[in-house]
Amino acid sequence: MGALARYAFKKVLIGIPVVVFVTLLLFLIMKQVPGDPIRMIAGERVTQERIDELRKSWGLDQPVYIQYFYWFAKVMTGDFGYSYVTRQPVSYLVWARLPYTLELTFPALVLSYVFGVPLGVIAALGRGKSRDYVTMGISSFFYSMPTYWLGLMLMLVFGLYLRWFPISGSTSGFESLVLPMLTFTLPFIAFSARIARTEMLEVLGEDYVRTAWAKGLPSTRVILRHALRNALIPVTVMFFLDLPWIIGGAVIVETVFSWPGMGSLLYKSILRLDYPVIQGVVFIIAILIVICNITGDIVSATLDPRIRVEPEKA
What we know:
Elements: H1 3-32, H2 37-42, H3 48-57, H4 64-75, H5 90-125, H6 130-144, H7 147-161, H8 174-204, H9 207-214, H10 219-248, H11 250-256, H12 262-272, H13 275-303
Helix pairs in contact: 1-13, 5-6, 5-8, 5-10, 5-13, 6-8, 7-8, 8-10, 9-10, 10-13, 11-12, 12-13
């Protein structure tokens, strides 16, 4: 087994107990949330006997550890239970909303790197010049702006004043996608530009880059083959690490624009204390985080062989 395969195998082994711990922590946190979902299902005028009957039918009369093992065993088979509110399978609700979230977030993530990385490289190559100040100033503006505020401003300008795009829903096809995608993309372009600039400046100060300049190599070759190639390693890893977080961050954007994705599903489920749906959505996001972290580590080790080299034993 090669060094890269051993490295990947170790990361997968580490990821398994992390997933188990995440499910346990998630389940315990849900049990501490104030409110009784059974009373919300049953209504205000129901008898205590009916409440006890419902609690038994949902398995909520069992000890917490039994509830957890029962829930975990079903989750491992893909069964997330049933919604307390709609009585529909949680898996159906999640998979019905997931395509909308991916349609919104994945293009936004790709565009953020397509535009953000070149802007960061341009700023680094012009360090201390006007293009550096302008690029970083605009990046700082969008990066520091709250997501909900940016979404509302885009709705106000392009939706209400100019009437170029609809301000909510998904019934208008691509036009409905523009404003929420911009709300996602602009802060991530700013973040990618800042990361790319920082990494590029660090690489430009390395000895091997200065040596390449001293040898009289063409500027294009030094920048592309020596500096940019190594500066993009952490930026590439960030692509995989950002994907689950951007899906988790969809709660705000999807709520603002009434987009029918997983974020709005999670928000409505929290308001209704619909525990099975909350657990299902958060569990999927947690799994994505673990998988993307492992993938990012493997990609990083592939691009930089030094990462997968095991330290010598004393």
